[in-house]
Amino acid sequence: MICKTQQDIDGMRKANKVVSEALKYAETLIRPGISTYELDKLIEKFIIDKGAIPSFKGYDGYPASICASVNEVVVHGIPSKSIVLKEGDIISIDIGTIVDGYNGDAARTFPVGKISSEKQKLIDVTKQCFFEGIKNLRVGARLGLLSSAIQNYAESYGYGVVRELVGHGIGHHMHEEPEVPNYGSPHKGIIVKENMCLAIEPMINMGRKEIYMKNDGWTIATCDDSPSAHYENTVIVTSNGVEILSL
Ligand code: MF3
Ligand code: CO
User: Fold this and answer.
1) Across the chain, which distance is largest between two alpha carbons, in Å?
2) Can you tell me which atom of ligand 1 is nearest the CA of 107?
3) Distance (Å, rounded) from C-alpha 127 to C-alpha 201?
4) From 47, 67, 74, 78, mutation site for ligand 1 pocket: most ligand atoms within 8 A of C-beta
5) Whether the CB of 96 sits within 6 Å of ligand 1
6) Over the stretch 179-206, which tens digit does the pLDDT of each residue have?
7) What is the pLDDT of residue 1?
8) Nearest by Cα to 68 from 98, 34, 102
9) Cross-strand bridge partners of residue 102
10) In angstroms, rounded to a whole number, what is the distance separating the alpha carbons of residues 138 and 238?
11) Residue ID of nearest Cα to ligand 1 atom 4
């Protein structure tokens, strides 16, 4: 169901608050030497201790509670004991929770120790893509306005905008209608309705836009091996503007 009731919105706030807190906790854990397996176990415990359910675990058979995507991995990196962070890496952490039947979903890309200025710029621009997008998100406007604003901003830095993966509506299910592409024409897409809840998630490559899936059936990486960043929040579009639920 595309437009939320007041009760739905309260539920969405709770689920996304846990996601937001878990991402802040994740940031404190990131350091050279920690494995993405350890991150998954610690963050999973944090989510469960808050009374929430880690929604990724078991979703289409996904084996972990977080996605941990290092450097050229775009999204859906499976946590592993053999993936150990080192100084200079960037890591995207994506977290989903369910509270009282409502879903929260958000992601951030973090530096590991000291990183290159090029990687830092990729992280900053990817985050700004989200904010450029939501400047164009309002009741009665076409969703394509947001999509094209994200694309234009990323491409103005020469970055590649991933096409195959998109943001989504969210509510009782993690993935609901509509799709929220990070590219496209400002004149296309649905007309945004009051109380729509959307997960907006630019995935931006430093190099070319093309991606491939690794043999594990999950991990998505850039074809040219260039680093990639991800920034996602769940938002609600009200008649008074956009409320970001997972900041
Ligand atoms: N945030 C991701 C998404 O919006 C999470 C899906 S990962 C999965 O699609 F493991 F749950 F599939
Ligand atoms: Co999402």
Assistant:
1) 49
2) 1
3) 9
4) 67
5) yes
6) 999 999 999 999 999 999 999 999 999 9
7) 55
8) 34
9) 99
10) 8
11) 167
DSSP 4-29: --HHHHHHHHHHHHHHHHHHHHHHHH
Ligand 2 geometric centre to CA of 52 (Å): 17
Cβ 183 vs Cβ 161: under 8 Å = yes
Q: Which stretches of 112-209 are assigned E, i.e. beta strand?
A: 160-161, 167-169, 176-180, 196-200, 203-205
Count of CA atoms in the C-beta half-sphere (13 A) of 15: 31
CA–centroid distance, 226 to ligand 1, in Å, is 22
Q: What is the DSSP string of 34-46?
A: -BHHHHHHHHHHH
Tokens at residue 153, please? 């901003």
pLDDT range class, residue 147, cuts 50, 70, 90 = very high
Q: In a mutational test of the pocket of ligand 1, which residue from 44, 94, 179, 246 has the highest number of ligand atoms less than 8 Å from its CB?
A: 94
The rounded Cα 172 to chain-centroid distance in angstroms is: 18
Ligand 1 and 165: CB distance under 6 A: no
Q: How far is the CA of 56 from the centre of ligand 1 (A)?
A: 6
For 64-77, the three-class secondary structure string (H helix, E strand, C coil) is CCEEEEECCEEECC
pTM over 0.85: yes
